[in-house]
Design brief:
heterodimer, A: Butyryl-Coa Dehydrogenase, subunit A, domain 1, Butyryl-CoA Dehydrogenase, subunit A, domain 2, Butyryl-CoA Dehydrogenase, subunit A, domain 3, 3 domains, four-stranded antiparallel beta sheet, globular, B: alpha/beta, Rossmann fold, nine-stranded mixed beta sheet, two-stranded antiparallel ribbon, 6 helices, 13 strands, binds flavin-adenine dinucleotide
Chain lengths: 408, 246
């Protein structure tokens, strides 16, 4: 219990100098809606994050370096494609378990969660959904075990929110296609062994394919100078007459619904992930407000601080309920892309607002890496933009409720 | 090797502790529970390592209500083969020891592992009682264990040093830090645990010789006084007059 937990060295496991004192927050007893395997998954990933991520993350983020050694650990705990079938070396879990894993990873850092979302939802998922059985067997077990690292190339320098305008293209050349073009902002690309790439065929139809790095004409230069997601590596994909064997092109899927179905998966995970970042900021701010004394009392006694904290836990609770309900819909295949848009948009914005308020509660300390808050805040600027920007998701909801398409 | 590991459920280390019924009952509402770390990190993991090296089975046992199944599933997720839950409130150390002994008598385990204590009641009693009820040797506070055939060499922590004991199977050993390293269950383990057998058996009668009269909280920590490092006289005065330690 409280008193002897510290004394016998059982309260903490952190190897670093700073102790990660995070505790989960469940104001509405949502745990009662979860099953044993969800709670066990959360406990396992939280323990892993406290042991492996928290002690090193500030340093890596500070140096803008990706802790690539964590790919192995992420694979070992089963964070790559946890909801894909066990036949391919994956976890066979449900969508709520997947969401909870993302929440706990993002509680550590959005960049670490990105490493896992890209590998699981944007690389393994399309291979699972769209590739031939042979290709699935070739790639999925190795991606699940972290032996291979993948990336996902949709965005282009001139086509972000409007991916259907992409210019990257393939031309038929007998037993292969010749791929030309460039992709931009690609998470994991400089360290990847393969890329799932979306490009237009000669009829202008979007096709998906697996392109292995090391193929002649394919380079992955790194993008530097990010103030956000600094512990995640981002790069380009440049294709100059790259020969892609025909068996590497997904046989059936045509059009934007291919990449969008992967994005739905990843956005779903982000809707959960953002709760993790928000909880970490709230947790740190709550503790700080109880410990920091000004004018002779803990700052948590001031009404303005209480307002911030009360609003934070209210918003976190709402976001948890949104994610949980979305999860139960996803489990039966009924979560619509528009519903996922709503949750991604709401929860990421909620997390960013909480990070900003939590930053204020920490005063000057809030801008340092003594606390996780500013790192989360900067990370969340990316999360607000990638996987469909905040405004684009709003327009998706707008289109869904009015029936009018504001993009055209 | 046929191994049994006793696991119990304890409040999470940061849980807020309170009592009801005139301070005679620990208030469980809102408290998060975990597997007792000495059982999980040391007893269970060492048993699993022995099984992995020499073959055999690891069964976990818990005396408790159905709410304990989450903790039991965690043990299965970490790698135990099956589990037994004796369906009853764990009323006292003797009660628990008696229930485990009852199961163990019928099963002929080569060794029974448990943690050196639970981190809530810190009783360190069940192991000794269990060994006595089974009439087998008991080694407490083991921090290292090697098996050679049916002989175990166990190092145990003693005040200021280490004692090394040798014991033949069957035996009971309680585990402290050093026995093994924590293992985090992975997602496949968690899913496999769902399909592993968890047998629920009824409790047997056991007389209670002691009852809890009341609990109390440790005295609240007094406030911290900050002094100017230059002001040594004031420090000495406070140590004299307030702390009364000089
Ligand atoms: C760190 C990082 C990692 C990333 N990882 C990947 C990855 O792995 N794979 C990948 O394919 N992509 C990735 N992306 C790209 C990301 O998905 C895009 O940045 C995002 O889709 C936005 O595109 P853009 O940056 O070109 O912005 P733009 O599309 O140019 O948008 C600029 C602004 O205009 C607004 N806007 C655009 N169109 C409209 C409209 N019709 N109505 C109203 N407002 C509009 C947007 O909301 C935004 O505010 C990543 C991005 C970052 C920053």
């Amino acid at each position: 219990m409280q008193a002897n937990g510290k004394g016998n060295g059982l309260a903490t496991h952190s190897k670093g100098a700073k102790e990660d004192r995070f505790q989960g927050h469940d104001y509405y007893n949502i745990d009662e809606l979860l099953e044993d395997d969800h709670l066990l998954a959360r406990d396992a990933v939280r323990t892993w994050v406290k042991q492996e991520v928290s002690p090193i993350i500030e340093d890596y983020a500070n140096r803008a370096e990706c802790p690539t050694h964590l790919f192995k650990g992420l694979a070992e705990i089963g964070a790559f494609g946890p909801s894909l079938p066990t036949k391919y070396g994956c976890g066979g879990m449900d969508e709520i378990a997947y969401g909870i894993i993302m929440q706990e990873l993002e509680r550590g850092d959005s960049g670490i969660r990105s490493m896992a979302s890209v590998q699981g939802s944007l690389v393994m998922y399309p291979i699972y959904r769209f590739a031939s059985e042979e290709q699935k067997m070739k790639y999925l077990p190795k991606l699940a075990s972290g032996e291979l690292i993948g990336c996902f190339g949709l965005t282009e320098p001139d086509h972000g929110s409007n991916p259907s305008g992409m210019v990257t293209n393939i031309k038929d050349d007998g037993d292969a296609y010749i791929l030309n073009g460039a992709k931009m902002w690609i998470t994991n690309s400089p360290v990847a062994d393969l890329a799932v790439v979306w490009a237009k065929d000669e009829e202008g139809v979007i096709r998906g394919m697996v392109v292995e790095t090391g193929t002649k004409g394919f380079t992955t230069p790194e993008i530097h100078g990010k103030w956000s997601l600094r512990a995640s590596i981002t790069g380009e994909l440049v294709f100059e007459d790259v020969r892609v064997p025909k068996e590497n092109v997904f046989p059936e899927i045509r059009g934007l619904k291919g990449p969008l179905s992967c994005l739905s998966k990843a956005r779903y995970g982000i809707a959960w992930g953002a709760i993790g970042a928000a909880m970490d900021c709230y947790d740190s701010a709550l503790r700080y407000s109880q410990e920091r004394v000004q004018f002779g009392k803990p700052i948590g006694q001031f009404q303005l601080t209480q307002k911030k904290l009360a609003e934070m836990i209210t918003e976190i609770t709402k976001a948890q309920l949104l994610a949980w309900r979305l999860g139960t819909l996803a489990n039966v295949g009924k979560a619509t892309p528009a519903q996922i848009s709503m949750a991604k948009r709401n929860n990421v914005h909620m997390a960013l607002e909480i990070a900003r308020e939590a930053r204020q509660i920490h005063g000057g300390m809030g801008i340092t890496n003594e606390y996780p808050v500013m790192r989360h805040m900067m990370n969340l600027e990316t999360v607000l933009t990638y996987e469909g920007t905040h405004d684009i998701h709003l327009l998706i909801t707008g289109m869904d409720v009015t029936g009018f398409n504001a993009f055209k | 090797m046929k191994l049994l590991v006793c696991v119990s459920k304890t409040p999470e280390t940061t849980a807020k502790i309170s009592f009801s019924d005139n301070n005679s009952t620990f208030n469980e509402a809102g408290v998060q529970f975990i597997m007792n770390p000495y059982d999980e990190w040391y007893a269970l993991v060492r048993a699993l390592e022995l099984k992995e090296a020499a073959g055999g089975t690891v069964t976990i046992i818990n005396v408790g209500p159905a709410a304990n199944d989450t903790v039991i599933r965690k043990g299965l997720a970490i790698g135990a083969d099956d589990a037994i839950r004796v369906d009853s409130e764990p009323k006292s150390a003797l009660f628990v020891a008696k229930q485990i002994a009852e199961v163990a008598k019928a099963e002929n385990y080569d060794a029974i592992f448990l943690g050196k204590e639970t981190i809530d009641y810190n009783g360190s009693e069940v192991g000794a009682m269990l060994a006595e009820l089974l009439d087998v040797p008991y080694i407490s506070f083991g921090s290292h264990l090697e098996m050679n055939g049916n002989v175990a060499t166990i190092a145990r922590d003693i005040e200021g040093g280490v004692e090394v004991a040798e014991v033949e199977t069957p035996f009971v050993v309680s585990s402290s830090k050093g026995m093994a390293e924590q293992r985090i269950p992975n997602m496949r383990g968690i899913m496999m645990a769902k399909r592993k057998p968890l047998k629920v058996v009824p409790a047997v009668e056991c007389e209670d010789f002691a009852t809890v009269v009341s609990y109390s909280m440790p005295a609240a920590k007094s406030e911290v006084k900050m002094l100017d490092p230059e002001n040594m006289d004031e420090l000495v005065r406070l140590l004299h007059e307030e702390a009364k330690v000089l």
